Amino acid sequence: MRFEIMRLDDVDGAALDSTVVDAASVNRIVQQAASIGQRIYIRPADTATR
């Protein structure tokens, strides 16, 4: 399964950028974001994104 991860703006929550990753990478990305206080949004990637 693949997921889209969006980095969010600290002020208004707008998406700054996004990337599609495999399920095995999600935990690492969440840990990195948490360590620096970065806001992210994770959702299943559309099949068209692949």
Walkthrough of the structure:
There is one protein chain. By secondary structure, this protein is of the alpha+beta class. It has one helix and three strands; from the N terminus they run ββαβ. It has one helix at 23-36; strands at 2-8, 15-22, 39-44. The chain has a three-stranded antiparallel beta sheet, with helices on one face. The longest helix has 14 residues, at 23-36.
Report on the biggest sheet. Answer: 3 strands, antiparallel
Helix content: 25-40%
Query: Main sheet: which strands, in order across?
Result: 2-1-3
Mean pLDDT: 92
Number of strands: 3
Supply Rg.
11 Å
Low-pLDDT residue intervals, each spanning 5 or more residues? none
Oligomer: single chain
Structural class: alpha+beta
Keywords for this entry:
50 residues, alpha+beta, three-stranded antiparallel sheet, flat
Question: What's the short version?
Answer:
The protein is α+β, with helices and mostly antiparallel strands. It has one helix at residues 23-36; strands at 2-8, 15-22, 39-44. 28% of the residues lie in helices and 42% in strands.
